[in-house]
Amino acid sequence: MEKAIIETSAGYIGLGWTVSGLVFLNLPASTLHDAEMEVNAAADSLGATKGTAKGSQVNQFDFKKIECELKSFFDGKTVSLSFPVDWAYHTDFQRKVLQRVCLIPWGKVVSYGEIAAAIGNPRGARAVGGAVGSNRVLLVVPCHRVIAHNGKIGGFGSGLQWKRKLLKLEGIYIG
DNA sequence: CTAACTAAACCTA
DNA sequence: TAGGTTTAGTTAG
Fold it and tell me: How far is CA A82 from CA A12, A106, A128, A155, in A?
């Protein structure tokens, strides 16, 4: 697995990917050191820290593009952030949910229940909550655009303040 | 209309 | 089996 860190106006973003696509993408950390720690922790938890050969030509992944879009995103610009993802570390159900979440356009929000209905489980809203909570590819899979059915913000594993901040970047205000 | 509480529903470890 | 980024229904104020 390849690893890298991208600097944006909001901080240092760590990410990891394979030939198949992105494996994880963290939220901005305030220091380069923190970002490195997070990247290593993420890679470790996936048990894929070994064999990070730098020599292998794994540039099917458009690094330049994601770097540009991430910087733009935190500068408040509208970007698609649609990149290939390596779903190998997710469950089938989680993949279904997350791929559906990927379809939510910039600046829009959807409820957990709507996602559940869209994948054929009208009563599985809570399961959807668990699935988006397992999302390792933040921003690329815009799980922050999934909120509760009554317009409330719902939850966010990495900290609710982040969810608010991300939505604010897209012009959405809650609470 | 809001707040509080309950039950139902579904996936993951 | 417990618990999570839920939701719909009921009841009280």
Answer: 20, 11, 21, 23
